[in-house]
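Exam prep: given the inputs below (a chain plus D-xylitol-5-phosphate), describe the expected output before reading on.
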Amino acid sequence: NRSLKIAPSILSADFANFGAECEAIEAQGADWVHVDVMDGHFVPNITFGPSTCAAIRPHIKTVMDVHLMIAPVDPYIDAFAKAGADVITAHVEAGPHIHRTMQAIRAAGAKAGVALNPGTPASSVEYLLDMVDLVCVMTVNPGFGGQKFIHSQVEKVRQLRAMIGDRPIHIEIDGGVDPATAPLVVAAGADVLVAGSAVFRGGSVSKPAPYGANIKAI
Ligand code: DX5
Ligand code: ZN
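Solution:
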């Protein structure tokens, strides 16, 4: 299904109100909910782990899209699957055995996603394309919300769309997506747009949140 999906990243939500924030973005048009897991080792920031994912799961009706920015990955796959992740995405750069990691994610019953940092070429996933459901192109260096979109990645999206051919694989864009950059990656072949600051700007659930208008603007 190539229809465009917006996946707000709760990295920019109110961390003390994840349940309410997830319900608010869903009610206001989010297609998926993107959950950024960081370990302070693979990326220079720490967020949360499987127990937080399990806690927010009942507040999400749609797809819980879990982006693992952790190394190693394999010891934690079952825990995130049990926490209710529908999609589990791991980084090509996070270890020497990304092929095994993709097998393990599917074996755990989740959809398998593979993410590429901005410095990693499209060709790094060539031999994974028959075993993944999603390729995530990082358009910022992972670790923080609110960074500037790296324009060189648009060409990588184009290359991936050509490599993927007619396989049913989503191309997800993560980082710096806003009303100005979204059309560039959609034209290049992306169909899932993660957006943190562009969705959560101007509100929190404690005030009237303008999430719906922000989502529509993308
Ligand atoms: C960055 C995360 C992103 C982040 C995007 O490491 O993977 O999901 O939340 O934030 P924005 O949309 O603000 O660039
Ligand atoms: Zn992410």
